[in-house]
Amino acid sequence: MAKKLKYNLDEIVDVKALQEMQDSFVQATGVTCVIVDQNKKRITKPSNPPNLCVKLARGGDAEVMYCQECDLKEVKKKIMYARQ
């Protein structure tokens, strides 16, 4: 069972600086990136999101929840791939 953390990520890091680092990383690599905490809450704004998300799915609350779930599924796939 995962240990509950005492603090949220946005309480211990400078979110603005984290966003700037993320944006620089994305600019250098061309990947899409968003940072979430252990509660699946977005800490940064998405950098370089796919055009489909920008045009269709980033509107209301329901769409944002769908996009967050989609983002998390991609992260989990990449973690599993990296462990192989």
Which runs of at least 5 residues are low in confidence (pLDDT < 50)?
none
Order of helix and strand elements from N to C terminus: HHHH
- Percent helix among the residues? 55-70%
How many discrete structural domains? 1
How is the main sheet built?
Answer: none
Mean pLDDT over all positions: 78
Please compute the radius of gyration using only Cα atoms: 14 Å
Number of strands: 0
Structural class: mainly alpha
How many helices in DSSP terms? 4
Q: Into which percentage range does the β-strand content fall?
A: under 5%
Shape: globular
- Cα(first) to Cα(last) distance is 22 Å
Task: Please explain how this structure is put together.
This protein is mainly α. It has one domain. The protein is 58% helix and 0% strand. It contains 4 helices and no strands. The two termini are 22 Å apart.
Primary descriptors:
84 residues, 58% helix, 0% strand, globular
Please outline what is shown here.
The chain is an all-alpha fold. It is built from 4 helices and no strands.
Outline the fold blueprint:
Layout: H1 9-12, H2 15-29, H3 51-57, H4 61-83
